[in-house]
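Progress against Task 2.4 (sequence-to-structure conversion) is shown through the following example record, which the project officer requested during the mid-term review.
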Amino acid sequence: MKPTEQIESLWSEALTIHFAPSMREKEPAVIVIAFMQSDKAAEGYNLLLDNFSNKETTVVLTVKSNSVLSFALVAKATADTVKLDNLQYNKQELDDFKLKHGKDIKFVLAVGILGQVPPALIATRDPFRPYVADGYIITE
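Structure tokens generated for the chain above:
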């Protein structure tokens, strides 16, 4: 199984996606994919770090409705893609993120666990190393 397929399988239980614009000048913006349980989410994140960290990537968000979207992480040079469908999102969060950050902003892509707002980030490796994406595109 290819790494992209492994990540998709491990992340198949993702429920929501959250958008957190940076609040201070040197603080990164963050997009969090949230789950009910952390084990598969962390394993998928580690595979993402192993297989995508050295690639320039774009997140493609396809808005399906005011509360549901699809997510794809696309490696620009190879077109390797991780896709997740039917993620719940907050339209106001996304609108605020777009307003504050242009599409070419580098941001942290993280995984979190539901139960609080925003979702608590899931510890992956020690020390934690964030995955940084190189921009985003929103289609409707």
